[in-house]
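Batch manifest, entry 17 of 40.
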Amino acid sequence: MSEDHDEAGADGHARGGIQSLDTALLVLRAMATLPGSVTLTDLARSVDMPVSKVHRYLASFIHAGLVAQSERSGRYDLGPFASELGLAALARNDFVNRTADVLPELSEVTGATALLSTWGNGGATVVRWERAASPILTSFGLGSTLPLLTSASGRIFLAFLPRKVTALRLAVELARASEAGLVWPDLNPDMASVESLIARVRADRLACVDGRFVPGLRAVSAPVTDWAGEAQVAVTLIGISEAILDPAGSAIRTLTEFTKKLSMSGPPRGG
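Output type: structure tokens
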């Protein structure tokens, strides 16, 4: 019996594949999700396959450069060609354009103004703005730089970028707030309060600001993350209704699903 599945459906898209290759790729996927090099026995156990079968797959992967085996320990790890494939995929994954293409749909479904921000030299920078049917009046638009601590978009980058990336901007904002004697509704201008904010945003994968920051405006933002769990862009919904901030509401649910679909899977970010 042939191992080939049906190659394509009526719409021209692949419907099956080669069964043995599908099984082999399960082994490769398991290696990608494991934290480091692995023994043959442990790898076979993780995919619930016989050791002899996994060994044959590994031999083929080694020949292709997808897997490498340590001569000293005998353990297996991803090989140089696996790295090349990953880098090529990352280089072709254009987060900004992919997200911008479907931003109008998000605005239409939620009824809220949607904006797309990326991290630039000055901080969180608005690169796309999709206005709702009922527009809102604000002082910022395309090219505007949003504050790190008091904007929903900024808080996403604060929580989902490495500290060294945001450190300078954070220090400037904290120093200015301290000098002016500012205390924000949910944040004090000190690192202990900032750490608490970062922990909340990471746990929820959401950042919100209410009408006490910019009178009359509410915003909720979520990250589109890369394989490392770092925010490549922030997608933010803005409105005047408190409903946009309802944790059980449709706006937050839609935004969460929207950004999750555009994000790459990868290891969770640490503290």
